């Protein structure tokens, strides 16, 4: 019975953010995704290189909308994405004949490695998974996927987060670097 009691939760939902906080989160996310997209479409698209991956949408939620979260800090953003990308590429290249196994190993191992290295960033799980289930364009990158789109995209989003999140006096980012 105690097992099911735990599922009720024990705390009340926190209050929602104010309009100003919502506006700054929106602006940061808009500018961060815009910056990554512009670099992609103006500099990389014609070279068949990609810079936009779905996990960046989830990173935007954290680094622009939940800036105090330990999961949103630069160490987590960069380390979580890069380590997960390495793991995802390795799992695809090693087990690509068994996508179900490569996908499961990539996500589970990425979580374990992010925990062990104190770089837990939930979108990293998606970054590892994209390396496995992504299309031919992603697979053709091999380990270049780690640098581009993952590393470069995360650095661009971090730069925007540093600039935008520190404009209002009510916001401070990051809470810590290492």
Short synopsis of the structure:
The protein has 178 residues and is mainly alpha-helical. Helix 2 runs antiparallel to helix 3 and helix 3 packs antiparallel against helix 6.
Descriptive notes:
This protein is an all-alpha fold. It has one domain (21-165). Helices cover 67% and strands 0% of the residues. The longest helix is centred in the N-terminal third of the chain and has 26 residues, at 19-44. The termini are far apart. The relative contact order is 0.18.
Features:
178 residues; mainly alpha; 8 helices; 67% helix; globular
Topology:
Layout: H1 2-5, H2 19-44, H3 55-65, H4 74-95, H5 99-116, H6 123-133, H7 136-141, H8 144-165
Helix pairs in contact: 2-3, 2-8, 3-6, 3-8, 4-5, 4-6, 4-8, 5-6
Helical segment tally? 8
Rg: 18 Å
Q: How much helix, percentage-wise, in residues? A: 55-70%
Residue windows where pLDDT falls under 50 for at least 5 positions = none
